[in-house]
Specification:
It is built from six helices and nine strands, in the order E-E-E-H-E-E-H-E-H-E-E-H-H-E-H. It is an alpha/beta fold.
Length: 200
């Protein structure tokens, strides 16, 4: 791995889960929480260490400096905490339980080819962000402004000049988020279908 970037994994799990009405990180599939699944997924690919953006016992956690300001606040805190030790951060939300190591490995490969920030087109997450002063400044500015539009993921990716990576329509379901009880129910149904076909 000497010629490869030093990338840390980040599981974003510090949100309020207001639309789900319960902590998404603690939802379970096959008696395993989404937080545990996400951490184990990132541990299965070529990352140096995996951290959790949030506050959960038994994990290497990084808490928000600017709480309750969406995913950018979690990304910002992780960048501030890890910028001296890592070249980039692989960022995965805790509510993407159908993603597999194949999608993660492809994104890591794309990043190592270019050393430029990358993300999955139309999905936003997962993403890999190059850690540098420009990213730190941009995140800090976005979180201290009163203009909420500055806190969008799309604006961040544009500012980073991140490269979109395409994926096939057949695998689009892998990138589904589970933000609501209805989406969670649909996710469980898809997971059961995949389990029955052994395609998980």
């Amino acid at each position: 791995m000497n010629n490869k970037a030093k990338i840390a994994g980040i599981v974003l799990a510090g949100g309020l889960s207001s639309r789900m009405r319960e902590d998404k990180a603690q939802l379970t599939i096959k008696q395993q929480s989404l937080l545990t699944r996400s951490v184990e997924l990132l541990c299965s690919v070529e990352l140096y260490k995996v951290f959790v953006s949030g506050n959960y016992p038994n994990y290497d956690c990084i808490t928000d400096i600017y709480p309750q300001l969406g995913p950018l606040s979690g990304i910002h805190a992780c960048v501030e905490a890890l910028s001296e030790d890592y070249d980039a951060l692989f960022i995965l939300p805790v509510d993407m339980p159908l993603l597999t190591s194949d999608e993660c490995a492809l994104l890591i490969g794309k990043y190592n080819e270019s050393k430029q920030s990358v993300y999955y087109q139309d999905a936003r997450f997962p993403m890999i962000l190059s850690v540098n002063q420009a990213l730190k400044d941009d995140l800090s500015d976005a979180l201290t402004t009163e203009n909420k539009k500055q806190r969008s993921l799309y604006r961040l990716l544009t500012a980073c000049k991140a490269t979109p990576v395409s994926y096939s329509a057949e695998t689009a379901y892998r990138f589904e988020n589970t933000n609501t009880p209805e989406q969670w129910k649909a996710c469980l149904a898809v997971h059961q279908q995949l389990n029955n076909s052994k395609d998980i």
